[in-house]
Amino acid sequence: MNTDSDNVELTCEGEKTELRERVVAFEKLVDWFIETDPWQIKRYVEGLRERYPDATDDELARKVVSLKSIKNGLVGAATGVPGFLAFPIAIPADVIASWKIQINMAMCIAHIYGHAIDPTKDEIKTDIFMILAGSGAKESLNLMGVEVDQVTKNAIRRYVTREVTIELWKHLGRRIIRTTGLRSMHRMSRVMPLVGAPIGFAFDYAATRSVGEAACDYYRRTVDPVAA
């Protein structure tokens, strides 16, 4: 007969397994987005530069954040309506759609600030993980023995080794999955469908703006601030 402690242990193990599966799925999604989007990113940014020829890099980056945030808010509103089909993996489709927009936005901002997007290298993948992890990225770095005052492209390039990078992806992946919460709005929409859409817009809009601002700070800063 199973005891309560046995059931708790099984539940915890099941949650750990589910988390690992979602982290693996997230990493595969990041790889796929990076591999499929580079030329689209270049065309998109070039189009914006033609449309706003007098805009500075900072102004253009803010424009991208604004446009992508609205787009992601609309994705959140649409997927907050019952009937939106989930992908056949362990992550809801609305979360996947949001991540795609956020990752695309981060790569656009990288391109604006003159950083190369090479899908064959680890740098852009690490960038995406750092940006999506937000304020938690610094804590993860500290746990890996890398201390920086501010998380920037230059700091990561200078102080994070290949060995640390691989472990960092795993740690940041778990943090991103937990922080995302796998879309509480996805569950709420089933209970309150009429409330789900407007709240979904506000949630995804704010989340994407936050990611966009983090991407601007990450790529724009040129100084390597390191903790003393």
Structural notes for this entry:
This protein is mainly alpha-helical. The protein has one domain. The protein is built from 10 helices and no strands.
Proportion of residues in β-strands: under 5%
Instruction: For the record, give the distance between the C-alpha atoms at the N and C termini, rounded to a whole number.
Output: 57 Å
Low-confidence stretches: 4-8, 76-88, 182-196, 223-228
The oligomeric state of the chains shown is single chain
Estimated radius of gyration: 19 Å
The biggest sheet, with number of strands, parallel, antiparallel or mixed sense and barrel status, is: none
Helix coverage percent: over 70%
Tell me the number of helical segments per DSSP (H or I, 4 or more residues long): 10
- Counted up, domains total 1
Task: Write the SSE topology.
Layout: H1 4-36, H2 38-51, H3 57-79, H4 93-112, H5 123-133, H6 136-143, H7 153-159, H8 162-180, H9 184-191, H10 193-220
Helix pairs in contact: 1-4, 1-8, 2-4, 3-4, 3-10, 4-5, 4-10, 5-8, 6-8, 9-10
